[in-house]
Amino acid sequence: MHSRRSFLAAAAAGSTLAGSRPFAPLMSAARTKSYSHAELEAKVKRRDFSGLTKRDLPTPNLVLDKDVFDKNLKTMAKHCKQNDFDLRSHVKVHRSPEIGMLQIKSGALGLCCATISECEVMMDAGAPGILWTCQPVGPNKFSRIVALTKKDPTFMFVVEDPMIVDQLEELAAAEKVTFNVVVDIDVGIGRQGVMPGEEGLELSQRVMKAKNLKLTGLMGYSGAASHAKGWKHRWDVSNHEVDKLMESVHLCRKAGIPVGIVTGGSTGSYNIDSQRKDGLTELQAGSYALMDSNYSRIGSKDGDETYDDFGLALTVLTTVISKHYPKKVAVDAGNKSMTQPTDMVKGRPELRVQRAGAEYGRIEWDETDREPKLGDQLEIVMSNLDMSVNCFDRMFVCKGDQVVDVYSVLGRSGPSQR
Ligand SMILES: Cc1ncc(COP(=O)(O)O)c(C=O)c1O
């Protein structure tokens, strides 16, 4: 451990070298050049990533393991192709136009978005086939779906209330547009959607009667199936919930209503939903691209303990900023990074993550042969991507320790973005 005096001396020595990094003894011996914060930002602005490593990055920050990420995209695309199953990747976990476009490039026919600002950002980036998986309510959202539909007439969104269907019909007539709508069925999540069976049929019939609305299909998202622990259990939950969606699909088809897409599913159920002949036509999985620690515990087809079909690609890079007590250190990723006690430290199963304050996190351990030292960097695998990613404006894309790119995180709900 560094004593405070030796630490300050080291800092002072390091700061006298032009362009070099303070706290030099905390860097690896092989390292000769480091960048100041201003130099780093200037390089990022120029998109010149040469020589930049994780050591140069401000913390806390998001870092993406490019190799793991690329493999995740490939694995999902290959699975969907082999099983003749369409993929409309959900962007809610990353909110990054660069990642959205890479998902399209790797084979997704479109993107699902949780918020209207995500739809706007992804459409601006050039993504086709956008489905907003939330019903538009109120004048602000109404004006924005009009703009999106005028920009890309294939834009779709869900509906789940007869009153909104009537309002949308009026709006579409006034704006001289046709809205593509997907009827949302509540297959068990209890937060959105009409009841399966007759209610789904009735809403679909109402849409069919509206001159300026086009029924594109039906949606049923099963939140329960996504994280059901154990593959066999997940198989049962997912099939049970897809059955509920299919009740409405069958009733519609019997009534002569053409149902185009049947959309739903998740990262947890991808290889269950793809196996049904009479079920979803497309998958809305999102987390597969980056993965989180909650998903890593749900078990896979090959074993009930870990889920490693997709690798953990995204982490919060953090620095040990205080070390005064045995068996614990303070790091600079806390509540503002939405770290949680269920997070994990990458490659360090013996370390536990605790929250200690807005800007402070705490890393604890019982036994370790590698005590984290002041100045060390650690990478935290988040429990919930949506929440942690939403705290940042960008992610640094890395190959090993080398920074190779920066992807933006846009479409956040806060005023800084929209
Ligand atoms: C409507 C909808 N579809 C799909 C997904 C994607 O799920 P996952 O990230 O678990 O793949 C979600 C996630 O919350 C969702 O809300």
List the helices and strands and how they pair.
Blueprint: H1 4-15, H2 37-46, E1 61-65, H3 66-82, E2 86-90, H4 97-105, E3 110-113, H5 116-124, E4 130-132, H6 139-151, E5 156-159, H7 162-175, E6 179-184, H8 198-209, E7 213-220, H9 223-226, H10 231-254, E8 261-264, H11 270-273, E9 282-283, E10 314-325, E11 328-331, E12 344-345, E13 351-355, E14 361-365, E15 377-381, H12 385-389, E16 394-399, E17 402-408
Parallel strand pairs: 1-16, 2-3, 2-9, 3-4, 4-5, 5-6, 6-7, 7-8, 8-9
Antiparallel strand pairs: 1-10, 10-11, 10-15, 11-14, 12-15, 13-14, 16-17
Helix pairs in contact: 5-6, 8-10
The structure holds pyridoxal-5'-phosphate.
Query: Which CATH architecture of the largest domain is right?
Result: Alpha-Beta Barrel
CATH-defined fold name of the largest domain: TIM Barrel
Task: Let me know the largest β-sheet.
Answer: 9 strands, mixed
Radius of gyration: 24 Å
Strand % is 15-25%
Bound ligands: pyridoxal-5'-phosphate
Distance between the termini: 46 Å
Topology order in helix (H) and strand (E) letters:
HHEHEHEHEHEHEHEHHEHEEEEEEEHEE
Mean pLDDT: 91
Structural class: alpha/beta
Compose a concise summary of this entry.
The chain is α/β, with parallel strands linked by helices and 418 residues long. The chain is built from 12 helices and 17 strands. Strands 1, 10, 11, 12, 13, 14, 15, 16 and 17 form a 9-stranded mixed beta sheet that branches.
